[in-house]
Amino acid sequence: MAAEGRTELAPVAGKARIDVLDILRGLAILGIFFMNIPFQGQTVLADLGKPQIIGWTALDRSSWSFVQVALEGTQRGVLEILFGCGLMVLAARAMQPDGPVAVADLYVRRTLWLLGFGLLDLFVVLWTGDILHIYALAALFLFPFRLLGPRLLLGLGSLFALVMMATAVPTYLERSALVAAMPAIEKKVAAHQPLTKEEQARQQDWRKLLERRAGGGEQVKQIREMEKKGYSGSWVAYAGMSIGFYLTFMLPQLGMSVAEAFSMMLIGIALWKWQVVQGGRSTRFYLLLMLGCYLPGLLARAIGVQEILSPTPVPHSGWITEEPARILVSIGHVALVNLVVRSRVGQAVLSPFKAAGRTAFSLYFLQQIIGIYLLFAPWGLGLWGKLSWSGLYGVALAVLAFELVVANLWLRVFAMGPMEWAWRSLAYIRRQPFRRGRGAALEPTLATA
Q1: Global pTM?
Q2: Residue 372 lies inside a defined structural domain of this protein
């Protein structure tokens, strides 16, 4: 506190940082590109239940399946957990009900600026899948929850998954009943026996499912038309496609996305209070936590992948298990990293990712610039629509290796990434030191990228 009773706020510096948070953030921000690159480099239809349409060699199938089981949704899950932890780092001086108002003021200001950067990413950089604005909207409601106990936070954070499970059960049961009824209906049709009205209705529903699976319906036609115009060559058409995709398909789901992020942030705060994320538990604890999360989570996701690849419209258990399995595997990743860094070899292997974690905001934007403008834009290398799954993931690996090298080299000279510098300068309403050796401090981001 300052002499006049005014709270002095500044970025967290030097040894106050927690390396495992930086490593987790670095791994997650790099790993999220595996989920983003298919939307940048191929037709959106490939991620709408039809992965085979862009190439399906053994390598394509295995790489796609691995990403779906081990990575899909979990990288943003880890970032959401870290966002909750970031709140606790920032609000350490406001943990009492009468804590400094300045901390809350800084937190809200940072969050509003984050929302602005998210809108920049959406409508200028043209990344349809931006997560910054989602995190910002979720974070606006997060601050008061810092005072709750970890069990209550975990319970509240689990509500979204429970609601998703409950709402998926009727759909699963309805599809199961339809699949079970079709053999008898087809047998009666083959024997030229009359069908009841209920059987006729089910037969019609089945035909619609098969037709939609084969042709995709109006949504597929709309997507193909938008992509055809978007990749015609001009920037205006390209921007129109990207923004159109967001307004048509992403914006209607914004409420669900914000609720998901907010719930996971609450779980992140709970895990922080239990000393889980920052490495405060025993090796045995992390081993048991990892196994306890990975075994059911990865199994449920593996079953879901097989259901997606089924040639017939079978009921998907993934409709029910998707969100709880995502949460479990995300926490499993946190446990695994904390387990690995306990050994010298593990520290040596993961140490380079600290730099990626400290420049995560900048690396996130760099991924969009490389993917959207250099690799897949009609005026760039023009690789859109030309790579299969293994090709896309190979390019992603190359980009991520490049970013990892850039991050480590960058931090030899600068205290933070350029986007981090801009965000913090705006949030603190004063220019932050940029180069090393000039009093620059390193602040853990709120895992926003």
Answers
A1: 0.90
A2: yes
Q: Is residue 49 one of the residues assigned to a domain? A: yes
Q: What is the CA radius of gyration of the chain?
A: 24
Look at residue 115 and tell me if it is in a domain. yes
Q: What is the mean pLDDT of residues 68-74?
A: 95
d(CA 78, CA 89): 16
In the block, residue with structure tokens 């899948």? 129
How many structural domains does the chain have? Answer: 1
Residue 435 φ then ψ, to 5° = -85, 155
Share of the chain above pLDDT 70, in %: 91
Angle of helix 318-340 relative to helix 150-190, nearest 10 degrees, comes to 140
- What's the chain's average pLDDT? 89
pLDDT of the residue at 447 = 42
Confidence at residue 105, expressed as pLDDT on a 0 to 100 scale: 86
- Which of these, 249, 251, 229, lies nearest to 241 by C-alpha position? 229
Dihedral of CA atoms 276, 91, 11, 117 in degrees, nearest 10, equals 90
**Bridge partners, residue 435, by sequence:** 414
Cα–Cα nearest to 47, from 135, 128, 136, 126? 128
Nearest Cα to 390, choosing from 43, 48, 57? 57
Distance of CA 192 to the CA centre of its chain: 52
Task: Return phi, psi of residue 414, to 5°.
Answer: -110, 155
Q: How many CA atoms lie within 13 A of 325 on its CB side?
A: 24
Q: Is the confidence at residue 164, as pLDDT, over 60?
A: yes
Q: Which residues span the domain enclosing 417? A: 14-164+230-428
Whether 287 has a pLDDT exceeding 80, the answer reads: yes
In a domain, 225, yes or no: no
Residue 3, number of CB atoms within 10 A of its CB: 6
Confidence of residue 98 (pLDDT cuts 50, 70, 90): low
Query: Is residue 216's pLDDT more than 80?
Result: no
